[in-house]
Amino acid sequence: MSRVWNFSAGPAVLPEEVLRQAADEMLDWHGSGMSVMEMSHRGKEFISIIEEAEADLRELLAIPSGYRVLFMQGGAIAENAIIPMNLLGTRRAADYVVTGSWSAKSEKEARKYGEVNIAASSQAGGCTTVPAMAGWKLSPDPAYVFTCTNETIGGVEYPFEPDLAQIGRGDVPVVADMSSNILSRVIDVSRYGLIFGGAQKNIGPAGVTLVVVRDDLIGHAMPHCPTAFDFRIVADNHSMYNTPPTYAIYVAGLVFRWLKRQGGVAAIEARNVAKAKLLYDFLDGSGFYENRVDPACRSRMNVPFFLGDEALNDTFLAEAKAAGLLQLKGHKSVGGMRASIYNAMPIEGVQALVDFLRDFAARKG
Amino acid sequence: MSRVWNFSAGPAVLPEEVLRQAADEMLDWHGSGMSVMEMSHRGKEFISIIEEAEADLRELLAIPSGYRVLFMQGGAIAENAIIPMNLLGTRRAADYVVTGSWSAKSEKEARKYGEVNIAASSQAGGCTTVPAMAGWKLSPDPAYVFTCTNETIGGVEYPFEPDLAQIGRGDVPVVADMSSNILSRVIDVSRYGLIFGGAQKNIGPAGVTLVVVRDDLIGHAMPHCPTAFDFRIVADNHSMYNTPPTYAIYVAGLVFRWLKRQGGVAAIEARNVAKAKLLYDFLDGSGFYENRVDPACRSRMNVPFFLGDEALNDTFLAEAKAAGLLQLKGHKSVGGMRASIYNAMPIEGVQALVDFLRDFAARKG
Asked: Where is this protein chiefly located (chains A, B) (predicted)?
């Protein structure tokens, strides 16, 4: 089979030229006589790979000095525990903004490690929007305010960057789970205390977790925080206290370089805006498909939608697959369909989806 | 450069045919039109990959029913915390046998989670041997006895399988860190309560951690154990509570199949015995090189040695590299040299090393 259009929510499509390069270099990286998988993480070859990956990421996100970049393991779900274990060492409570499945999971996990205050929630309305910051009720002295800037399952994305100074709480660090929208849009890192994300959407293969953390938030781990997940230890050892997931970091580095060749984050954001507009405009005008998210908070990355006749779901998926459009089934907690259109999905893929959607609706709608 | 002889302690050499297959399948796995890196972990393609990997591993190690196989993240160093967090939930103390750097690190980490008793230690003699089991002093009611069956840094390997029934304590589960010798020799899994290992020596790429755990040891996690690392949660979700390191698991599966093609663990053990004998016999008879480990406990996987004249170390490493023999520098805590000769190192590589060693000694010794 030739390559397909892969709309998986993650692990997800990667740039084809990244995959080609990885295949080409598999047995012999840059004349070293070794695969990247076979290299000691302490050898000069791999050190050059991880250092270039970090430098490229810093350039892409314009990460200011005063922030450390950590390559960790366990994905965003492990970070749901690792973050409170690191940040609640000297504080009692943390505040959470709940906008969907992922932030709900995060706040539940945090309760193991301290007091959790729900600063704002859109759960009453089914998590189809992001509560305006003016209404966030912070606790008196939270260690941080937790946000999930893009809810992969619900398809809800923050249309603003949380800036707590606007509500007079600029002293409180914002933690952001950006697993599914990091590197897809320009952000101002200085607004956050900590940004994290599993790699398997916009960064690279599953198995590496990216953490960007401000210096002053490092060094406060709780006594029972595993050493391997103590930000102080990870930072001081340049992400090599334990053996890092070397190959996943290498592929992430290839993705960063690909992104630079695309023109960087601003350029990819413009394409992401165009891709999302193409799909949402079609859905809205179709008279057959429906996206139920607050239009102001629709995700550019994950587009859940429903058919006008849900009895056609299985037929839809079978025909889509036959047309080379894969992994369109919605998350079981939401139902319907979901198209994830991350950085590596070209507009041609979105156009192919729209063409299929139009044809299907014309025949069955 | 052509492929080299890579003696890295880990990440380490992989079978060349595994790397070739991974490269060939990079853009399109089995006609799916996707790279394994791009597949949803919940799709039928990846499910078939992880199920086959587990089935092959069970066959290779003859894992009895009543044991679960978990694919986790964080490496052996994270397990140093994860294991006590899971096994000390209902007990107060655990016993540790210290035979080198890795078991020492493990017992230090465990102290965060409970009382640690040193059942036996070879530290007084510089960790060059394994204390005979008859001398192990277990505490009254330990949750487990921790062992590291091969010390990668010191080059010390258990010449016996711990069988606590022999000292009248068959009720106590043995935990074994087999990171650097798993799948290199036939073991009797039923003697252990839990076996674990980072993948980056004999299994596959760094980033996946293998845990084989007896059913009765699952379900006792401490309250502050991160959900992602709770054996109950990981087992009930078939290692997919969080997104698993899919590509690393895929490559591990290719290594398992390669190992089956080699004839399985007994066949590879015979080769490992031959490789180790070739190298140790040469070192012992050389009159120039020296291995300082108790001959009964010499590792078949990691062979540390010293030159007769340590002033020649840099020259030795430079000439070895020029001859295509890489990563021979000893761990900084030990000094000298170290040749790691895992499953994927063919005897031709060991012979090339011996030839070089002989030639170097003849010229410089």
From this structure: cytoplasm
